[in-house]
Amino acid sequence: MFSLEFWTPYGEAAKTAAGFFWKSGWAFVLGYFISAMIQAFVPKGRLTHYLGGAGAKSVSLATAFGSISSSCSFAALAAARALFMKGAHFVAAVAFMFASTNLVIELGILILIFLGWQFLAAEIIGGLVLILISRQLVVWTYPEAWLEKARQKVEDASASENEDFNWRKRIRSAEGWHLVGHHFVSEWAMVWEEIAIGFTVAGFVAVLVPETFWQSIFLAERAAENPLYFPLVLENALLAPFVAAATFIGSMGNIPLATVLNASGVLFAGIMGFIYSDLMVPPLVAINARYYGWRVALYIAAVMYVSIVCTALILHYSFALVGVTPESARAIKDVAQFKLDYTFWMNLVALGLVGWLAWLNRVWHRQNKQAEMDMAGGGRIKKAVAVTAMGALAVGIMVNLFLTRG
To answer: Which of 186, 280, 302, 400 is the least crowded, having the fewest Cβ atoms under 10 Å away?
Structure first.
């Protein structure tokens, strides 16, 4: 039905996507295990009482709160809505959203694996800069009437934010570790779709979309000649959020695609602008519209866009000033590869850890007899796309194995 000209690149694209999964599997498990422990053992309820202002204290606490919360973009919006409803200032809610999708442990591990330490440092530093800039923008432009209406519109997402407990007793109890398993499985239930879509798309884009496409829209050839020329840096920073929005990929799923952009010669500002733009994808803007109304949702998107562009520019020139801008891209073939190295052993350990945590989750459900909590996920359409992506990946891997053996 199709010629080898179709099946060969299709199989190679599936192999590349599977390589992305393989390289980062243990990192996902480790990151979400740590996240689950933090959520189970860190009492967060009392923090919400200190987020009522737009000052440094409220923003700092919101940032800390976000960094120990879920990295799932959908969960971040739901939690931010709950904070806003319970009296948190809108500035603090925005800081929480940025922190929970840019300063979490699992995202940092993934960036280190795929992009290197410079990008990890930039992600942390830039995440803080991003929050400071967005705070100032909201303070300057605060639409008080809109936000008062938005506060009336929001609904309580979860009573669990009010919980308070003795963490020393919980960490020594079996019930506390059952809760860790529950949080771990719940996290995966929320993010598996965007991970499946993001990694599959990244693998196929890496093989099927020629580098010349990215080089043309990001003006890579001209940028390589003068990487500090402001109009070119600005073009990369301005364009990157729109590319991220067009991919419909969330925070954890866009790192492999950022690696593809990096390998194609996109400027540092463009790559960081792409990574920071996970909250600007259309499904998330639509969820904010459902929470707060379209005026506030578009206002949030505008604040995010301006903050992302400014942060990308600051990072680009500040890193260049101290001489730590990434000079060479990590080749896709070096990232997406299968061999008997540390990744194999880490994935083996991670597999055992997943089994133990799944068992803890089963015990938690047996004891509590509760259904999974709805965290405003992607819905049926996103689930269908994720399942289709996994199916296409499975077919492609079989094709690749058949062609390589043949």
So the answer is: 302
Cβ neighbours of 93 (radius 10 Å): 25
Q: How far is CA 211 from CA 94, 183, 239, 247, 403, in A?
A: 35, 40, 16, 17, 25
Instruction: Please state, in angstroms and rounded to a whole number, the distance separating the CA atoms of residues 67 and 14.
Output: 33
- Given a contact cutoff of 8 angstroms between Cβ atoms, the answer to whether 399 and 7 are in contact is yes
CA distance linking residue 370 with residue 12, whole number of Å: 43
Please report which confidence band the pLDDT of residue 197 belongs to, taking 50, 70 and 90 as the band edges.
confident
* Average pLDDT rounded to a whole number, residues 106-112: 82
Reported confidence tier of residue 201, pLDDT bands at 50, 70, 90: confident
User: What is the domain partition of the chain in residue ranges?
Assistant: 4-405
| Nearest-angstrom CA–CA distance, 241 and 115 | 18
Give the end-to-end CA distance of the chain in Å, rounded to a whole number.
18
Phi, psi (rounded to 5 degrees) for 184: -60, -50
Confidence of residue 70 (pLDDT cuts 50, 70, 90): low
Q: Where are the beta strands (DSSP E) in 64-119?
A: none
What pLDDT does 156 receive? Answer: 45
Q: What residues contact 276, with CB distance under 8 A and at least 6 apart?
A: 102, 126, 127, 130, 241, 308, 311, 312
Q: How far apart (Å, rounded) are the C-alpha atoms in residues 120 and 362?
A: 35
Please tell me the distance from the alpha carbon of residue 69 to that of residue 76, in angstroms, as a whole number: 8
